[in-house]
């Protein structure tokens, strides 16, 4: 097994809306006055985690101090665990600020460890820009390396002693009094402890140290509660600053879509309908539903469709918050395209989705067959992809005129640019009394002198005549 640790040192700060680019820090601790995380402008002014609020204001008078929000941090952790579902089937929160992913089984899927880590770095730059990574055969070792040596890779258990030995004991999750006792014995790093007899170390210092070392080196199991994605994706994201145009919204939309892709991979589902909600400070929320012709989970396609839908939407005020939720999930992807239907352009479902995003759902519709013998009532408009396929009827064309066109009659014969020749018929269609649109017609297949075939009928009621109703291809 190979574990990847994602350390989130600035999670208390990144879980909160950031506002402008000024110096900022998050307060926590027993009395709520100790800095837990600081942003870059605050760090440049000499402010660092662990200082008290009074000291921070002395060093940086204009600093903004925010109260820590455990609920916001938990939501941010869960969002990252959902996102990680595209890389692993086993992810968990090891500590409040550290996630671990088992990636040993995923390396071949992504083309090797280097390719997998490159993909992770690329997406982390969007979903968790300050995350630190490290790999090791145990989750505890990966987490410790992420804290002490970000970017470290230890691929085999045999390489753990050399990699962990120089790391300081103060970085272990041990009681401070135990750390002080170890320092009093002249022990400074993990290697110092491992060189001492195990039995004597346990008798003098208790079982906590040995249990921690055993988990680091894989000699004892690491209890983890694997994360299980929810049945439905619902995510709300506060924007760093109010956005009043589509380009300012796109980074947040991409982040939401990356998390959605992880959710879909983890649930082994594809999405066919989703909803984007725009929230404002002093205006009702705007809800933008998006329904796809075929299920999808690609970020680029969904981003393009949402951007197109947003471009057609007037924003009543700057957007402060985005919400993304799934409405329809399907278990399996659509079948691949037919070999004989291949073409150089984009697939038809993608084209239809782009048209609906640009023109609106009402402007792009499909057609469905209905159980009615009357030609003009044998079909109906329906949402794309939802209709029943038409059953071909021999002798009928696929192209009907919007309204039947009356034909001239010469010597009792219908004419259109000359006398028509009747090739087949009649097909008698009579009915419709139940909806006050009854017909009584005899249909024929006719041909012009040029050879073009037409579908015509003779009205059987008194005063009726001949009409052109359809054209054959």
SSE topology:
Elements: E1 3-7, H1 11-14, E2 24-28, E3 34-38, H2 40-44, H3 53-59, E4 64-67, H4 70-83, E5 91-95, E6 98-102, H5 113-127, E7 132-136, H6 139-148, H7 160-164, H8 176-184, H9 190-194, H10 198-205, H11 207-216, E8 234-243, H12 246-267, E9 270-280, E10 286-296, H13 299-311, E11 319-330, H14 348-359, E12 366-369, E13 379-382, E14 399-406, E15 408-410, E16 413-415, E17 421-431, E18 439-447, E19 453-459, E20 466-471
Parallel strand pairs: 2-4
Antiparallel strand pairs: 1-6, 1-7, 2-3, 5-6, 8-11, 9-10, 9-11, 12-13, 14-20, 15-16, 17-18, 18-19, 19-20
Helix pairs in contact: 4-12, 10-11, 12-13, 13-14
Describe the protein's architecture and organization.
By secondary structure, this protein is α+β, with helices and mostly antiparallel strands. It is built from 14 helices and 20 strands. It has helices spanning 11-14, 40-44, 53-59, 70-83, 113-127, 139-148, 160-164, 176-184, 190-194, 198-205, 207-216, 246-267, 299-311, 348-359; strands at residues 3-7, 24-28, 34-38, 64-67, 91-95, 98-102, 132-136, 234-243, 270-280, 286-296, 319-330, 366-369, 379-382, 399-406, 408-410, 413-415, 421-431, 439-447, 453-459, 466-471. It is elongated, with a radius of gyration of 34 Å.
